[in-house]
Amino acid sequence: MAAIVLCELQDLYNLLNQRVIVCRLAEINYLCLIGENVPLQINCRFILDLFSIDLNAKGVFLPLENVEMDTMQNIVVYDSKTNCLDVSGRAYQCAKMVAKSSLCLVHILRGGFERFSAVYPFLRTEKIMYTIKELETMRTYPVEIIPKKLFMGNQTQANCRTMMEDLKIKAVVCISACHIDVLRVEVGMEADKVEFCFEKICDFIDSHISNGSRVLLVSRHGSVRCSAAATAYVMLHHKHSLQEAWSYVKKCKPSIMFNKRFTEELSDWEKKISEKTTISVHVLGTAITPDVY
């Protein structure tokens, strides 16, 4: 039986906003999102509410039909407002039933539907059914690196006024070019070392976050450059090692990759802010993507 753990609002938000060419919600085994015991008077759903679960006459949860739980990559159970792993609670009992046939962790959303919909009201919808084409073309928001403070995305997202307003973004670090209150960081293939930019980027982010503003990190494809900047900030903000910061950012957006050059610069950054290097550049530099930034 798979383990049952709590997941944070940020974790589900990021799961719903993953994209690799097309929105990942179109992948049949990407996410099993199970809504349990949400009040009927709430006439709205998450952007994608895949399944609801039924009880038998004895009040025992029934297995989901036509769902191959053992192939699912991510499983999240939510109810109205669960905040802990209460083994007697309905959310836990639902998750326990699902865990019997799952090979991955089964998550229970901390705070439930009520808290998630309060923090991300723009992800609610009354729509129930989606075609594969609709899922593939569904717009995705920037992923959330530090809750309510730092986000990471691409230029298309940065140029979408609705997304900026929904996320309450007030400043952008554009590692190419953009709008609003922007720090532009030119990083060409032949440019000076980006190490000298990390401190400037972190100072810019801190100056806005300290004033209560939210910041968006942007590069053309939202891949290499902005993830390197996000990792550098997490290292400084959370006092993480390079390995810890990279793992943290990759959890927010699993598709990110570093090339060898940025990995070396992050290693130098780690040495600069902590006076030590904790990981070989070859460990993070195994996925080299020279043409996508």
From TrEMBL:
| Any GO molecular function | pseudophosphatase activity
**Among the record's GO biological process terms, what is one?**
negative regulation of stress granule assembly
* InterPro entries named in the record: Dual-sp_phosphatase_cat-dom, Prot-tyrosine_phosphatase-like, STY_interacting-like, TYR_PHOSPHATASE_DUAL_dom
An example of a Pfam family matching this protein is DSPc
Q: Which SUPFAM superfamilies match?
A: (Phosphotyrosine protein) phosphatases II
Which residue spans adopt a coiled-coil conformation according to this UniProt entry? none
Residue ranges of domain Tyrosine-protein phosphatase in the record: 141-275
Example of a GO cellular component annotation carried by this entry: mitochondrion
What name does UniProt use for this protein? Tyrosine-protein phosphatase domain-containing protein
Biological source species: Periophthalmus magnuspinnatus
